Amino acid sequence: MAHEVKIHDAQAAILRELLFHPEASFAQMQKPTGLTSDHFNFHIARLRDLGYIEKVKKGSYKLSQKGK
Q: Which uninterrupted H or E stretch holds 33?
């Protein structure tokens, strides 16, 4: 049985942004959330740790296969 992962609203917003924009910068994704850089960075790191997003170049991210 698969373990269900809890996704914070901010993390869901990041995934949604990447769904509609295959590659997005940190700033592009942060703006709609209204979070500070520190809080937003925490959520980006969590999604990377879960394997849902990956860094493609400095400051840009995309959905991983798992994230899609």
A: helix 26-33
Residues of the chain with pLDDT under 70: 1-3
Contact assessment for residue 57 and residue 20, using Cβ atoms and an 8 Å cutoff: no
Parallel, antiparallel, or unpaired: how do β-strands 60-63 and 24-25 relate?
antiparallel
| Residue 56 token pair | 């493609």
Q: How far apart are CA 57 and CA 29, in angstroms?
A: 15
8 Å CB contact between 28 and 39: no
Q: Does the pTM of the predicted model rise above 0.90?
A: no
